[in-house]
Amino acid sequence: MKHVLKGDGRLGHDLDPQDRAPQDACGVFGVWAPGEDVSKLTYYGLYALQHRGQESAGIAVSEGSRILVYKDMGLVAQVFDESVLGTLRGHLAIGHCRYSTTGSSVWENAQPTLSSSDGGGLALAHNGNLINTPDLMARLPSGATRATTDTEVLTSLLARDPGTSIEDAAADLLPEVKGAYSLVFMDEKTLYAARDPQGIRPLVLGRLDRGWVVASETAALDIVGAVFTREIEPGELLTIDERGVRSRRFALAEPKGCLFEYVYLARPDTTIAGRGVQATRVEVGRKLAREHPVEADLVIPTPESGTPAAIGYAQESGIPYGQGLVKNSYVGRTFIQPSQTIRQLGIRLKLNPLREVIAGKRLIVVDDSIVRGNTQRAIVKMLREAGATEVHVRISSPPVSWPCFYGIDFATKAELIAGSLEVEQIRESIGADSLGFISLDGLTEATTLPAERLCRACFDGSYPIPIDRDNVGKFVLEAKA
């Protein structure tokens, strides 16, 4: 396991490194399937979940007597190759691709985490973010863990009592864990999965011919040929072994699924609560056109995040849809520092306008969100320079005004442009002729779920799990150390 920094060349939405898009915590995948090549199934499952985390990746496997973990910094395809996967043999596996929300982005914090005791080993992968991590950390002896993540703390707590089964330990511990957690974990013989009582982050169960799969999104089931069975319920613990799938409830369900999964985080080919994400995003675009109509000649998306809503906007408004911006999909984060001349090009490294499409046109530009505003400001300027006569910006989410403590690495409220400016002030800041955000009610209606079953805290500041501001933050454990 080498600790090597690698350029990623990823298909990213980070058009401006100073204006990151919201980042999800991670993707998780687990498989119990004797006779199958579980490491390759996990590899492809993580490949389907790569959009949920691009900092590190890892797989844990067991053949029944010991757990082996391989992880490293970088994308799934950079961390694993045929030779590595060939050494990861067994009948069950879990995998993880990470974006850090608690703890720095370093090898020590990559997942799955591994803990051992007299009773055997435990590997765990986590999507979400806990809000009582320091309290949980206080239960462990000093120096019990070198990592600085909530996941490492969970793993150590679950494995510390060799006289208790993993299933019973989880059922005892999880009711005391606060925050968002969709977990896959394993000992040498058994696969487990659990979801917090609010079900903030997604987690689904699928069936293989010779086993079972657990994953963050249905798209990961599709890629490995698993048939969707059901969503894992909030407050539910699953145990999967040769006896099949057993369910145990450790808390009453209080569903509060993340609304931002529909806006940006989930793949468009994923299904949440029985509705395809693509259909939801197109419907948001239609509602956006009804809420914020404007006379124009062409609707264009900010690729690729704004595409479904732009399609919906064009359908509802009757204004033609077109491609006005071309994205260079292979420009991601880089460890080669650009020269000052290249740096001044900024967003043009990743987006370039089609001048013959744009020149002389009144444009509607659709994107999924505005975080700091730098990206939209640069796009508006670029389109005007390419000859657009008007630029009207439409956003398929309400203003993001509040930080997330449940697994999305939003900026602080002070850094969020909507945290301090009204819509008209934001319009002036980005230089658009007009600016319209979908209403919170409109976005909610497009999901077909009632508002009381959704977490909408980043839009309205109403947090379903009370927050102790002194006990949260990406570096909370490092600060206390």
Automatic annotation (TrEMBL):
4Fe-4S as UniProt keyword: yes
GO biological process, one term: 'de novo' IMP biosynthetic process
Gene3D superfamilies: 3.40.50.2020, Glutamine Phosphoribosylpyrophosphate, subunit 1, domain 1 (3.60.20.10)
Pathways involved: Purine metabolism; IMP biosynthesis via de novo pathway; N(1)-(5-phospho-D-ribosyl)glycinamide from 5-phospho-alpha-D-ribose 1-diphosphate: step 1/2
Molecular-function annotations in GO: 4 iron, 4 sulfur cluster binding; amidophosphoribosyltransferase activity; magnesium ion binding
Alphabetically ordered keywords of this record: 4Fe-4S, Glutamine amidotransferase, Glycosyltransferase, Iron, Iron-sulfur, Magnesium, Metal-binding, Purine biosynthesis, Transferase
Domain Glutamine amidotransferase type-2: 26-243
Record-listed Mg(2+) binding positions: S305, D367, D368
NCBIfam families: purF
Sequence similarity: In the C-terminal section; belongs to the purine/pyrimidine phosphoribosyltransferase family.
Function per UniProt: Catalyzes the formation of phosphoribosylamine from phosphoribosylpyrophosphate (PRPP) and glutamine.
Name the record gives this protein: Amidophosphoribosyltransferase
Organism: Sphaerisporangium album
Phylogenetic lineage: Bacteria, Bacillati, Actinomycetota, Actinomycetes, Streptosporangiales
Gene that produces this protein: purF
